[in-house]
Amino acid sequence: MRMALDLAQAAADTGEVPVGAVVVDEASGTVIASGSNGPIGTHDPTAHAEIVALRAAARALGNYRLTDLTLYVTLEPCTMCAGAISHARIGRVVWGADDPKGGAVIHGARVFDQPTCHWKPRIEGGVLATEGGDLLRQFFRRRRAGTATMTER
What we know:
By secondary structure, this protein is α/β, with parallel strands linked by helices. It contains 5 helices and 5 strands; from the N terminus they run αββααβαββα. It has a 5-stranded mixed beta sheet with strand order 2-1-3-4-5. The chain starts with a helix and ends in an 8-residue tail after the last helix.
C-alpha cells in the first residue's frame, strides 16, 4: 500500500486525482504491475489507477486472468473498476480510503455483492486509509481554493 500511496502522490503532482494501484503476487512477494490515475493527461476516462495496473499486469503475464493476485489501491474502487476487477478474476482487493460517493465495493452499487457478479474477490478496506484520504482531501481543497495547477482543474 505504501507503493500505491507513492503512485497516488505522483499522480497528484501531475494534476491527476491522487489514486495509485499495485498488483502483487503475494505467494512470491513480486510486484507484477502498478498504475496511477491518468484520465486527464491521457484524455482517457477509463485510465483509473486500477485499470492502468490491471492492463499492465495482464500484459506482463500474457493473460487477462489475474487469479491469485492482490490489487492494492488507495481508494475504494468505483463501479467501472470493480467490474474490471471481477472480469480479471483478481483474488483479493485491498484499499485504503473508503469512497462513500463513488465507491462500489462497500458503498453505492456494491458490485461484488450483486447476484450477477461472476467473480467475487476477497476484500479488505481501511489499510493506510488516513494517508490516502489526506492526499485526496488536500488535492480537492487546492482545487476548490483555486490554487490547483491548470491540469488539476
